[in-house]
Amino acid sequence: MDPLTHQVGFRDREVCGAELGVFRFERPEGYSFRPGQFASVTVATRDGVQTKHFTHSQAPADPYLEVTTRLTGSAFKDALLALRPGDVVGFTGPRGSLTLDPTVGKVAFLVGGVGVTPARSIIRDAVGRGSRLLFVLFHGNKGPECIPFQEELDGYGRSGDGRVRVVHVLERPGAGWNGEEGFITAELVRRHVDPLDGWRWLVAGPPAMLEPMKRVVADLEIPPDRVAVESFAGYE
Ligand SMILES: Cc1cc2nc3c(=O)[nH]c(=O)nc-3n(C[C@H](O)[C@H](O)[C@H](O)COP(=O)(O)OP(=O)(O)OC[C@H]3O[C@@H](n4cnc5c(N)ncnc54)[C@H](O)[C@@H]3O)c2cc1C
User: Fold this and answer.
1) What CATH architecture is 5-95?
2) 106-231 fold
3) What angle do CA 193, 199, 203 make, to 5 degrees?
4) From the CA of 232, how far away is ligand 1's center (Å)?
5) Ligand 1, atom 11: nearest CA belongs to which residue?
6) For the chain, what are the domain ranges?
7) What is the mean pLDDT of the chain?
8) pTM of the predicted protein model
9) Over the stretch 216-233, which tens digit does the pLDDT of each residue have?
10) Contacts 24+ apart (CB under 8 A), 154-159
11) Which of 34, 39, 182, 199 is the most exposed place for a label (fewest CB within 10 A)?
């Protein structure tokens, strides 16, 4: 067995809108990871045993393991939804290198929907540690039914020192929304930050949203060595 594999018990879940679930598991003794890293989850599904990769959406200081994912109706996601407290899954990690250089002072995220998971982990960790890093999170979502981690992230944005700025962009905002509408574009980004003013850019999410985000990065003329990309390969 992979030495990074643990058998972990399912704890609980929260569902956001109809399309997104946050799943928590017991954290094995000694398990540690850096924000931005991912793990592989193995469950028995109606189509046999399957393994998929998920970025840790919690911070390293949290006493549980957490993954956040789109509920697509796939055999894997339905198996996650069917878990009851105490059911055991395989959890292999940590893996991946999308971690933050601690010497970087300013971090900007371009993410859509569930692509927020590394940003949430990195920002939650930094805020929890009282870090001096500056963050701006551009987070695109379809509508107001589910903006993952909105309350927590907006709370960081409102609290005190202005170190975290969150810019929500809704494709279909509906009545009463007074934030940004449409899609994340270079013009929209420039209205909030000077993109070349020392920011390090992290782009993450399913391939279908990565391509438009990469175009935004190109339009902003951000040098390649200032950009890290994490593709949630496996989504169409
Ligand atoms: C480094 C890394 C990090 C990742 N982090 C995350 C993360 O934090 N969160 C996350 O959600 N994913 C993450 N992924 C992707 C994840 O591993 C899965 O590939 C992804 O969640 C799709 O799994 P699925 O079971 O929904 O789709 P699959 O069954 O693999 O199907 C692929 C596509 O078909 C569609 N599909 C499948 N079944 C149905 C159905 N019955 N009806 C309609 N459509 C269907 C799905 O929408 C999906 O787009 C990550 C991947 C990598 C490589």
Assistant:
1) Beta Barrel (2.40)
2) Rossmann fold (3.40.50)
3) 95
4) 8
5) 69
6) 5-95, 106-231
7) 94
8) 0.94
9) 999 999 999 999 999 999
10) 156/123, 156/127
11) 182
